[in-house]
Structures are given as structure tokens and as C-alpha cells.
Amino acid sequence: MIIDESTDRIRNLTEREFEAEYGASRYTCNVLANRSRFVAGHMSTNIVTRAFSPIISLNMDYVCAVVGPPELDYPLVGMNQGNFIFLGSLATGVRKTVEEFGVDRLAPGDLLVSNDPYRVGNHVNDACFIRPVFHGGRIVSFTVIRAHMLDIGGIIPGGFSLFKKNVYENGLVVPPMRIFEKGEPVKEVLRLFLDNGRFAATLLPDFFTINSSCALGDEQIQESVERYGLDAWLGAMRYSLDSSAEAMRRALQTLPDGEYEGEDVLDTDGADSEEIYRFHVTVIKKGKRVEVDLSGSSRQARTSLNATPLDAQTSAALGLKVLLDPQTPFTSGTYRNIDLVIPPGTISSAMPDASTHFYWEVQAALVNALINALAEPLGSRAIGGLYGSTNLHTGSGMTPDGRPWFSAAELEAQFGGWGATDAGDADGHTGTFTLNQRLTPTEEIERRVPVLLTAREYIPDTGGPGKYRGGSGFRKDSLFLADGDHWLMPLHFRFPSGFGVNGGKAGRVGGSWFFENQDPDKPECEYRLVGATDTDGVVVSGVVDENGALDENGEFAFFARVPYWTENKGSTLRWITNGGGGWGDPFEREIEAVIRDVRDGYVTILGALRDYGVVVVGDPDEDPEGLTIDEAATAAARA
Amino acid sequence: MAYDRPTELLVNQERVPAKGKCPECSEEQLFSYPVLSEGGWFKVVKCRHCLASLKRESDPVGQITIFSATI
Fold first, then answer.
1. Is the CB of B62 inside 8 Å of chain A's CB atoms?
2. What is the pLDDT of residues A508-525, one digit of tens each?
3. In chain B, whose CA is at the least distance from the CA of A244?
4. ipTM for this prediction
5. Euclidean distance between CA atoms B59 and B57, whole angstroms
6. Span between the terminal Cα atoms of chain A, in Å
7. Residue A278 forms beta bridges with which residues?
8. How far is the CA of A99 from the CAs of A130, A133, A177, A298, in angstroms?
9. Chain center to CA of A219
10. Most CB contacts within 10 A, which of A136, A223, A401, A531?
11. Is A53 strand, coil or helix?
12. A122 in B contact zone (CB under 8 Å)
């Protein structure tokens, strides 16, 4: 590993040189760089504790950020530990919105909004709110919140339908507009949102909370500028950007020069099962320069399985950051040495009037393709592949007493198995690298939705075998207590997603099913599924045999053979997620780790022998602490 | 503005050959194409051999012209 120790590092500047470059001392710049993240963190606390929409308050589908002024070209300089899917859209989206609205038209207390994916990235539900921070009559920063609006109109409640064919079916598209003017709501703009979206009573207070959160950030920035001076505030921003750029540049230099190709696929766009969507990533590394080229990727989808270039930029930078530089803060400077080459009209760079609603699925596949591309050059630092898709679910219907119910992004299998690393085994129930969200608590889901979550458990032998084991697949069962329609969007059950690295093996591929005619009024009904085989169900998606059970040599069941699934009270939706990839030769896994896996239910006795060459003796269910190793048989199996 | 869906299944970025020699590595492998980086979209002329940028021109519009934004 060769690190460039050239003298152009910030740390090598003398104090005098540093102050001349950044307008303040090294100490002050560090204080103010941290202050930007602190401001974003306070904005986050404000919104998460006051938002009415569960997707904000419980799922944390938002990000708060501090963006630099026009004179610095609108860079992202600080953000909270929010949802990373928005990273690529923050700086460029803010610039686009402010410039189109007119920077000279802005006044203190204004709040701009835009949700057009072709201007600000993401999808129409993810509105971008921007407040200019004035000091001494000039804009010195912007406080920004990107947050998911519970509904923005469109063809289904909540908007989570894969089957939207164009941007017009998405819902309301808002060009740059002023939603608060000098601190006061612009009622006609609020009405535009409220009259076009469902759940208006929930949305309305969220607009005020977002405004107050941006105002809080404004106030804290004003305090900082007042105390340290404008030169220091702006200089600290440049320092943050240069530090991020330097950290990524040095990290990239640990990668050998070369061209590295990787790929991931998504099963289908839901229009038919014929066209498989490929994500081809070529990483070209020459010295301190890197290009990430998405040429060779599939054309844009016919449905809403698309993303914008800003979303792809998130994946490229975040993927490299996860692999090479996970410790330092993310700013726009992270992109400085990374050129993203992305042909127009791919699934990652869809053109109007395509719908980009499922952009996060595209982002996840891109990151998986990127870590796949760099598996070989990274050697021991390679990471196994992830579980693939968030398998989204949207449901709605009427309860037996005539009450409408609705659920979005709660009853899918959003989390899954990560790939193992040289640090050890991977977790089996975590979001994709780009999704930094929480799952809605079971109690909250069951309070609002007529459903019982009857199972959430790991499945043995699903994590990719390796010296370090990939995260296990898990089963999630949801028993519906009312009739309803269900939109299901599983996108990665056709091919493995959790590839192994350094001799590790791939994680197993999962699927989804409906089990019908369960009787929710009988207390024992939830137990009837325990021990049931998947052949009892109606397969929604997966590669299965003629009975509907998972079989890698079987046929792919196309989930969109019906536009939505109409299910009666008593149906159970089951997910089994993909396992993550293993790291290293599984026959080098410590024997004690294998026996522990058998005891804990991650590996069966059969799997221990087949995948790890370890002969475990005993009964893991009846006497888990009594398991022993047949050492002679293990030595023979591993020979 | 609406754009047509590409007819080819897999899409590639066109790189237009540019005249000249790279001042860093002396290779005559210069190409012009768009990239997305810090600061948004740029029209670049780069050396295929060493990735040095001979020209980087900011492109605020990028790949998509939004009709309503032209009013």
C-alpha cells in the first residue's frame, strides 16, 4: 500500500499558511467544521421529535444539512447522521433550486421547496426545503432539509408503486417555490401540497416543523458567525471541503492503478419478466484520479424503477467511502477526485418523463456493483455483497368495522444480510449502505394497521459461508386481520446478491409468499405457520420448484403477474431475505465459531458439515450447550 | 421535455475523440464527454491513459433541459 505523503497535505501547512488559506486558526476551523454538523444535528432533533408523519418521526426518512453560500458554489459542508440516499442531491439540488428561483429574490426567513426529481434528484415525495441564512445582508449559508412527504398525490396512497409509468403518475411536481416568506407561510403553496396529497392533516404540521427546524439551524449559524466572524465561518467551510477531498484522495491512492468491473442485477422492472436490469460499474483508477463509469448498464425502466444521476452520484461516492474512507465526515469535497461517467437514459440516469420513484433500489444495486468491482483489488479489505432489495410493500383496505387502513414501507423486508468483512461476521438485519433508516416499531404498526407481526427470525444456512459468515437471511411474517390490496415490489430474488469475497461463498436467495385462509380469531393461528413449509403458500416471487419452494434450479415466479394482490382477512405475507456474502475460505473458519453458529441457529448440523467441514454432534434444540465436535471426522472433512 | 427511451438494451457513454496530446503523459488519447463531480456537471476533455483533465467546463444544465425552467 503506497500512501502519497506529498507536502500538499493540510496538516503540513504552518499556522501562518493555514490562517492565510482558511481565514482562521486551525483550531477555530475545526470547531466551526464540527459546528456545521452540530447545527444539522440540532435541526434533526427538532424534526424527529415534532414530525407527525411516521415516515419522518419513526423511520427517520430525512436528512438535515448545512450548505455553503453561492460564492462557494453551494457545497454540502455538514449533515446529521441522516438518510444517506439524499447525499448526492443536496449540493447540486440546492444550487439548481436557488438559481432557478433567483438568489436575488431571497429574503431572511424564506423557505424554498422543490421536489422535482429532474431538478433535485430522488422522487417526488422527497421534498427539498432550503432556507437562506443571511448575515450582514448577504447569504452566508443555507439550512436544508430533505424529507419524505407521506403523500404527494399520484395513483396509489403513499406513492410506493413500482407500476407508475411516468412522472405524471407520481403525483405533484413542485418547481422551485417559496413555501414560507419572511417566516410566514405562503398559504397558496401549502394548499397546493395539501389539496394534491392524501393525509393533509398530517402533512400540514410537518411543513411548520420543517420550517422551524431550518430556522433553528439559521439561528445557530448566526450565533457562530457573530462569535467567530464571517471569514472564519466561510474559511471553515473550505477547510471541511478540502479535508474531505484530501481524505478521499489519500484513500483512493491505496487502490492499485487499473480498471475494475463489477455488476449487479435487478430481477425485472415489473412491466414483464423478460428484461433483466443490469448495473455495470467500471472503476478506472490512475494515480490520484478515479472515474466511475456506468456504461454498459441497462436502459431506463418502463416503470418507476429508475433513478437520476444525482442519486447515482450518491452511490458512487458512498460506495467508495464505505470501502476506502469510512471514518471522515462526508461533504461535497468527497467527490473532488471522483468523476462519475453516466450515459443518459440508463436505469440510473433516467430521462423525463420516466418515473424515478424506486431510486433507492437503484442506488443499492449500484453500490453492490461497485463493491463487486473492487473485490479483487481490495484483497483483504473487500466486502461481501448485500441482500439486494428492500422488497417494498404498500397495503390498504377496510377493517371489518368499516375503517380504512393504510400501510407503506412497514410490512416489507426492508433490512437484510450484509456481506462479511475482514473484521468478522456480518449482521443479518441492517439496511442497505445508502439507507440509514429505522424500522417502524412493531407495536406502532400493529396499533395503526390491522396486522399481527407473527415472525421475524433468522433462517439457518442462508448467510454466505466463509471464514467470516455473511449476514443470515431472515423470515418476516405478517398476518392481516382485515381484507386489503397489497402492492409488492421484491426486486432481487432471481439472482444472488450476496456474493462472497476472498474465497467466501454467496448467501442464499430468498423469496416471498402469501399463506391464505389463516384464522386470526383462533389464538393458535399464528403457530400454524411455524413448521409450515413454503410449499403451503402462494409464491409471490422467487426461484421455486413446482410446489413453490425455493429451488435454485427452479423457475422464476414473476411477482407482477398481477398488478396487486387482493387478500382476505387471515392471509399471511412471508418474506425470506437474501443472505449476505461470506469472506474467506469457509473451511478456515474457527471450529468454535461453527459450533457457536449451530448452537445459535445460524447454521444447521448438516450445513456445518457441508459448508464448513465441521462435524457437530448433539441436538441444538434440546441441548444447545451440549454440542460437541467430532474432531477426527472434522479433520477428515477438512482435509 | 420528454426524451425517448433508448432502443438498445445496454447504454454506453459516447466519448468524442479530441485532438492533442496529454501534457502529463504525452499520450494522444484525448476524449470529450460529460462527468458529474464536485460542483455538478462538467464538460471535460480528458486523457484516457492517465485521466488528466485538459478542460473542465461547468455545465449547469447537465443532461436534461427542463422546459418550464426555460420560461
1. yes
2. 999 999 988 766 666 554
3. B38
4. 0.97
5. 6
6. 34
7. A265
8. 12, 16, 12, 32
9. 31
10. A223
11. coil
12. no
